[in-house]
Amino acid sequence: MEIKLDPSRDDLPLMANTSHILVKHYVLDLDVDFESHVFEGTIVLFCEDGNRFKKQTSSTKETYQLASNKACKFGTPEFCHLPMTNASTTFNVEYNDFIIYDKGEEDASDKEGNHDNQEQASGISSSKYCCDTQNHGREDFLLVLDCCDLSVLKVEEVDVAAVPGIEKFTRPSKPTIVSEELRNEIVHELVTLPADHWREQLDYFARCSQAPSCGELFFDTDTWSLQIRKTGAQTATDFPHAIRICYKTKPEGQSVTWTSDQSGRPCVYTMGSPINNRALFPCQEPPVAMSTWQATVRAAASFVVLMSGENSAKPTQLHEGCSSWHYYVTMPMPASTFAIAVGCWTEVKLETCSSNEPVIERPFPLSETDCRYVGVCGHMEYPCRFQNAAATTQKIIPHRVFAPGCLKEVCQETLLRLLAPCLSAAHSVLGTHPFSRLDVLIVPANFSSLGMASPHIIFLSQSTLTGRSHLCGTRLCHEIAHAWFGLAIGARDWTEEWLSEGFATHLEDVFWAEAQQLSPYEAQEQQELRACLRWHRLQDEMRNSPEEMQVLRPSKEKTGHMSDSGASVIKHGLSSEKPFMQVHYLKGYFLLRFLTKRLGHETYFSFLRKFVHKFHGQLILSQDFLQMLLENIPEEKRLGLSVENILQDWLESSGIPKVHSRCLL
After folding, report:
1. In a 10 Å sphere around its CB, with 0-12 CB exposed, 13-18 middle and 19+ buried, how is residue 502 labelled?
2. What is the pLDDT of residue 323?
3. Where would I find the beta strands (DSSP E) of 217-345?
4. SUPFAM superfamilies attached here (predicted)?
């Protein structure tokens, strides 16, 4: 499948060749420099041959019960910072899945920040213009990563076989001679360890990330990608499966914002850029490339580092004036969900009682058969909270609030007091919290949204703190809902944004009514008022936006399709209009409201809990939700609904479906 990409259009390219090779784990080791506005350090990629991984997941997906569900703590490994060098290798490359029409683009390797070394390194000529004459370059396998506005300094293969104790991951029948095959076998054994070995796995990932190099690799960059090859490695199976990339970000990179907080102190954070994290670290951006990660970040001792991570990290003092923070994630997720914020944040605590104080709860109509599942899940193996009986009954997960010092008091009065009841309400509606903890950060005033959810961390605008608790409560409920829809359950195709935003908008009303402990009549009255306001906003947007931007499933039957390599294009992904549009929120909300009214509140939410249990930890398309919905409701309640007519009327057409307004309001 050949994809034509025109840079003059607003489509976003996903260049990574995920069909050939998948990154299963990232180890980041970075320094934050507020003077030059850059992150600098290394990232180590642990990969699996794409075909091999597909075979492995299909064979192990049948059944696997965790041997131990006991909660345990991970001892943070000791990290040493790898010194940066100015050696790199580059080469010119062609690849067939994408044809890029670029008007007059010249060779700009120096402008891209790549540093050529004309000397010999590791027996490989590092000259940019050097190419292996035996294989003519093009016959070698090419690892393509999504990358933008990064200065790549060096790429090298990691000698994982040199790590002490690593022989436990080799087969006794294997020869002791260190070879590419042996190193790749070690990586394979490491990335496929059972879920109850997660602490050991993270420890060995850390050790391997610090292993010596066994040779530099040729690389090149263009506008949207980093391409890496090794001479003589002609397939993904032969290609090194542990790669270390030395790099630094650029001040103008769009994945992070360098700014000042409301107290005037410097800070940096990922603000939900349309290009995601490719200007923060080289990665595989397509959602299908679900991975885990661990990261060590060093900053001046006055700064606090918050990140997507399962652990509530505490700083380790390295030397006077410098601290190190370490986070990790064991649940595989797309690299685009990674978030980081470094600043002089203050932790906000209640002065009179614990932030995790008990909350008076009213039971949400719920049957044991449709929620509290404990057993085998349908996702790839990881330490899943849905398989842990204690986690399924945890109504309020541990949580913290951070903000600039000047906003501490207002956060105590509003945000902090709302967190526990909102978390409890979410649990009463959907059941098991997918993530074990939550940080909430009030981000700087330049944040362009009201909120953004990432694994284990939510960014909120200071605007949510104004007025009474209603705005803060509803936005908090919206972002909490993303833990289920958007993170634990993600869209396989990013153009189906409604699967995240439509669900979160619909659920925020239900969560908020439950958090306020409203009576059924009061809840219905509040939700109908909000539906009326949204209806007028949606009508205004339909009148003032291009028809093609009103379609929730713009690729229609091609949704989820990729090129042979795994590369794809996100339609309108770089549109300047899209960030200001609410169609995915509002039209998706009204579709779910329509289905809830047709099926009945109890029937719909009973199904939704079953859906969450079946698809958490996985990626979905619209038809996955609609097919299961119609299969799980009685024939008499379907009332002529079908997957085909819902797709056609709601998702693949512009405007608002011709449904009587009483069916929507």
Report:
1. buried
2. 97
3. 218-221, 225-229, 242-249, 256-260, 266-270, 290-300, 304-307, 316-319, 322-334, 340-343
4. Leukotriene A4 hydrolase N-terminal domain (SSF63737), Metalloproteases ('zincins'), catalytic domain (SSF55486)
Under a CB-based contact definition with an 8 Å cutoff, are residues 425 and 433 in contact? no
Please state the separation of Cα 343 from the chain's center in Å: 22
Bridge partners for 305 per DSSP: 342
| CA of residue 171 relative to chain centroid, distance | 34
Q: What is the dihedral of CA 566, 569, 573, 574, to 10 degrees?
A: 110
Instruction: Give burial (CB, 10 Å; 0-12/13-18/19+) of 555.
Output: middle
Residue 351 confidence (pLDDT): 74
Give residue 211's pLDDT. Answer: 97
Helix, strand, coil percentages in the chain from 3-state DSSP, rounded to 5 = 30, 25, 45
Catalytic annotation on 347? no
Of 380, 381, 307, which is closest to residue 337 (Cα–Cα)? 307
| Ramachandran class of 279: left when φ > 0, alpha when ψ lies in -120 to 50, beta otherwise | alpha
| CA distances for 215 relative to 77, 158, 166, 242, 614, angstroms | 25, 8, 20, 12, 44
Q: How far apart are the first and last CA of the chain?
A: 44
- 150 neighbors 247 (Cβ within 8 angstroms): yes
What phi and psi, each to the nearest 5 degrees, are found at residue 100?
-100, 120
- Candidates 434, 393, 370; CA nearest to 603 is 370
Q: What is the reported pLDDT for 404? A: 97
Task: Say how far apart CA 583 and CA 656 lie, in whole Å.
Answer: 10
Phi (first) and psi of residue 521, to 5 degrees: -65, -45
Exposure string of 275-295, with b = 16+ CB inside 10 Å and e = fewer, is bbbbbbbbbbbbbbbbbbbbb
* 59 residue type, one letter: S
> Which residues are CB-neighbours of 22 under 8 A, at least 6 positions away?
47, 48, 50, 53, 284, 289, 291
Report the pLDDT value the prediction gives residue 258, as an integer from 0 to 100: 97
- Distance, CA of 522 to CA of 236 (rounded, Å): 59
- Residue 643 Cα distances to 8, 134, 624, 630, angstroms: 36, 54, 10, 8
Cα separation, 111 vs 113, whole angstroms: 5
> What pLDDT, on a 0 to 100 scale, did the predictor assign at position 482?
98
pLDDT < 70 stretches in the chain: 1-9, 52-138, 172-176, 352-375, 659-665
618 vs 492: CA distance, rounded Å? 9
Per-residue DSSP letters for 16-77?
--TTTEEEEEEEEEEEEETTTTEEEEEEEEEEEEHHHHHHHHHHHSS----S-----PPPPP
CA gap 366, 605 in Å, rounded: 9
Find out whether 117 and 86 touch, Cβ atoms under 8 Å.
yes
Sequence-distant (6+) residues with CB within 8 A of 497 are: 491, 552, 584, 588
Count of helices and strands (H, E) across the chain = 14, 28
Please report the pLDDT score of residue 440 as a whole number.
98
Distances (CA, A) of 71 to 111, 116, 311, 511: 49, 48, 12, 28
| 263: three-class secondary structure by DSSP | coil
CA 361 to chain centre: 32
**Measured distance CA(498)–CA(505) in Å, rounded:** 10
Distance CA 469, CA 418 (A): 8
Rounded to whole angstroms, the Cα distance separating 384 from 71 reads 11
Instruction: Check 479, 501, 514, 541 and give the catalytic one.
Output: 479
Q: With H, G, I as helix, E, B as strand and everything else as coil, classify residue 404.
A: coil
In whole angstroms, how far apart are CA 172 and each of 140, 160, 181, 237? 31, 17, 14, 21
- Residue bearing tokens 């003589």: 232
pTM (2 d.p.): 0.85
